[in-house]
Amino acid sequence: MAKNTSKTKTHLHARNVGMPFDADVFNHLLVNRSAVERRASTLGKRRSVKKQWQAAWLLKAITCIDLTTLSGDDTKSNVQRLCAKAIAPVRSDVLLNLGMNPSDFHVGAVCVYHNKIKDAVGFIGDYPIPVAAVSTGFPAGQIPLKEKLKQIELSVKAGAKEIDIVVSRELVLQSKWKELYKEVKLCREACGDAHMKTILATGEIPTYTKVLKASWVSMMAGSDFIKTSTGKEPVNATLPVSLVMIRSIREFEELTGYKVGFKPAGGIRKAKQALNWLILIKEELGDDWLNPDLFRFGASSLLGDIERQLEHYVTGRYSASYRHPMS
C-alpha cells in the first residue's frame, strides 16, 4: 500500500496543562435537569441540514471519527482491515464526485486494545492517523492505580499516541473529588506526550451535577479530552449529558484559556445522530471545536451509515451495506 508522506500531526491549540485542584470552582454548581433535557431535545428540530450542506457536514463527521474495534475476538487481520478503512473511509469515486482528494481524506484516529497497538501502528505506518488505546482497566477501571499507570506506560511504549482512560466511578459516586484529581493527574503524567482522553462513563453516574463536577476535575488534572462513555455501559452517549460536559469545557476555557476536546462514544450509529452532535458543538463551542483536534466520535458502525448517505447524495440511490467494506 502506498504511504502518505505526511508524518506529523500539527495541533491547532495549546495543550491543556491543567490547574491546581480548587473545589471552590465547582462545588457550588448545580445542573437543572429539565432545562438541559429541554435544550437538547430541540437540536434536531430547530436545524435542518440538507443536500450539499448535509454532505459537507457528514464529510466533516468522518474526519472526527475514532474508528474503533474493542471486541474479545479482535485479531491482527481484523485490526488491519479497520486501519485500511481508516486510511480510505469512503470509496474514491464517491469522494471525487464530492470534490474531495481521496489521498488526503481519513478518519481522526484508530482505537484498539493494548494488545493490538503494534498491529495498528505497523499497518498505518506514516499516515497521519494516531493510534489510540483504551487503558486503566477499561471498561470498568476496577484495578489498582499502580496497574493503571503501568498499562498507560506500556501502551505509550508500544506506539499509542492517544490514551483513553476510565475514571474510578467510586470516587465520583462518593464525591471524592480531590482523590479523583490526583488519579487523573497521575495518569496524565504517565501519558507523557500522548494525548489523554478521560472517560467519565456517564451512564453509571446518577446525576448531571456529578457529571459536571467530574468533568471539571478531569480538566483541572490536565485531560486533553473528556469522553462520555466506554461504549460498554447500558446507557452511553446522550445529547443532554453531552450538553453538560460541553458547557463545562466552555467555562474551563473561559477560566484558564485552554481548549479541551470532547468525545461522545457508544450508541452513535446513524448519520442523523452525528449531525445533531456537530450542531451541538457548533452552537455551544463554536467552529474552533469542529476539527479532530478537539472533537471525536467514538464509533464502529457510524461510518457505514454516513457512507450510504453520501452515496445517496451522489447517485440518488441508497446502496446495500455490502457495498461498503468493514467499518
Q: Short summary of the structure?
A:
The protein is an alpha/beta fold. Helices cover 44% and strands 9% of the residues.
Structure report:
By secondary structure, this protein is of the alpha/beta class. Strands 7-6-5-4-3-2-1-8 form an eight-stranded parallel sheet. Helix 7 links the parallel strand 3 and strand 4. Helix 1 crosses helix 11 and helix 3 runs antiparallel to helix 13.
Poorly predicted ranges? 1-10
CATH topology group: TIM Barrel
Q: Count structural domains.
A: 1
What does the largest sheet look like? 8 strands, parallel
Q: Please indicate the percent range of residues in DSSP E strands (runs of 2 or more).
A: 5-15%
Write the topology of this structure.
Layout: H1 33-41, H2 43-46, H3 51-63, E1 65-68, H4 76-87, H5 92-97, E2 109-112, H6 117-124, E3 131-134, H7 145-158, E4 162-166, H8 169-173, H9 177-191, E5 195-199, H10 208-220, E6 225-227, H11 239-256, E7 261-263, H12 271-284, E8 297-299, H13 302-315
Parallel strand pairs: 1-2, 1-8, 2-3, 3-4, 4-5, 5-6, 6-7
Helix pairs in contact: 1-11, 3-12, 3-13, 4-6, 7-9, 9-10, 10-11, 11-12
